[in-house]
Amino acid sequence: MKKLRSIVFPILLSLTIHFFPQIVLQSHASPDDYIRHPARSVIITQHHRSQSDPQQVHISLAGKDYARVSWVTDDKKVSSKVEYGKMPGNYNVMATGENTSYKFFFYSSSKIHHVKIGPLEPGTVYYYRCGGSGPEFSFRTPPPTFPIEFAVLGDLGQTEWTVSTLEQVGNKDYDVFLLPGDLSYADFQQPLWDSFGRLVEPYASSRPWMVTNGNHEIESIPIIIPHSFKAYNARWRMPYEDSGSSSNLYYSFDVTGTHVVMLGSYTDFDVGSAQYKWLEADLAKVDRKKKTPWVVVLLHAPWYNTNIAHQGEGESMRKSMEELLYKAQVDVVFAGHVHAYERFTRIYDNKADPCGPVYITIGDGGNKEGLALQFKEPTSPLSLFRESSFGHGRLKIINETQAHWSWHRNDESNSVLADEVWLESLSTSRECQNILNRQESSSSSSSIICDEL
Ligand SMILES: [Fe+2]
């Protein structure tokens, strides 16, 4: 019976999505019922541990079966080592790594440690201690097979809204946290990077946090501060080398059947640029059949946006890179930057297209600038749901073909499911395969005609 159910349910789901898409494109409760709240004050998270104890601990994925532990110590003599094991207090493995620090005007950072640990078993809780002293932390590695659940939210900041949004994320289990840019909103005030690291530590030390950068990470002033992303690169080191990237500002990684691409909206993206060439090569290597049926992209400035805020800021990048994503049949593109939630249909080149990615803006984490309240009217038929509220998203990939996306409004102390949709992977979409095959054969026949001429 159980086996029968597991066969019948996915078939019924696919048929429902195909024939009655309006049923699965649900939205719950009218946005008009909700009173939009203003921005709230910044919270400074103090350091209460000793100088040699770790603070700002966070985990990131660092290649197949490896993770990176990052933390900060005021005491510069503390060594960059992590002891870990599968039982609390019993650390049978030790790894050493690297450390760095940076200066920013009169600010000198504390010692920033990065230690790669592994090989690790999937779906397993590891207990660990950083630098030989201080509290024990634990984190869970992603599962070996589907399902996997991503928590997705951008433009986080460190306000009272950030605190409640993160609490709502933490109240329901998930595997990996994805952040499409704008982390601390330190905006040149470097101690705010430290405060942000301490605020997110309970979450970022227990699940991998994979981030890309936004405009608030740039922190450069021509001539005075020529090097951009100084604090971001030192503190939030991502596994760029593993995907062949030469920059911490764009990279990719595989996790549980999903290829996740992190792009840099504020790095050169023109055709022929280093980021463009890397993206082209990275997408060409994706194995949808055997390894990663799902491909997800994150970037900061949205390519599709009907909010008045930040209109057109992602347009140059879209014009340059959209074709690469379309040809690679990317399933979903997440963006931040606009402090609101918006979900589009599948799009390619400003038109609804069953083979284009679903575009989702999720820049509503809770930062100090408040919400982007005004949307353009009338509503574009490409935009299926939009609301100016804080909240967070969850992408649960059920299997090779089906995923569930949901957006949860931060309604004061409550997390309210406000939008949800079932998604079918483009890697198995027959309709899309037929369209792409037709496009390919027509473009190859037109190139034959051109050759003959
Ligand atoms: Fe931004």
Automatic annotation (TrEMBL):
According to the UniProt record, what class of enzyme is this?
hydrolase
* Signal peptide coordinates: 1-26
Instruction: Give the residues annotated as coiled coil.
Output: none
Q: Which UniProt keywords apply?
A: Glycoprotein, Hydrolase, Iron, Signal, Zinc
Reactions catalysed, semicolon-separated, are: a phosphate monoester + H2O = an alcohol + phosphate
Q: Which cofactor does it need?
A: Fe cation; Zn(2+)
Q: Where is the Purple acid phosphatase C-terminal domain?
A: 356-417
Query: Which residue intervals define the domain Calcineurin-like phosphoesterase in the entry?
Result: 150-341
Could you identify this protein by its name?
A: Purple acid phosphatase
The taxonomy runs: Eukaryota, Viridiplantae, Streptophyta, Embryophyta, Tracheophyta
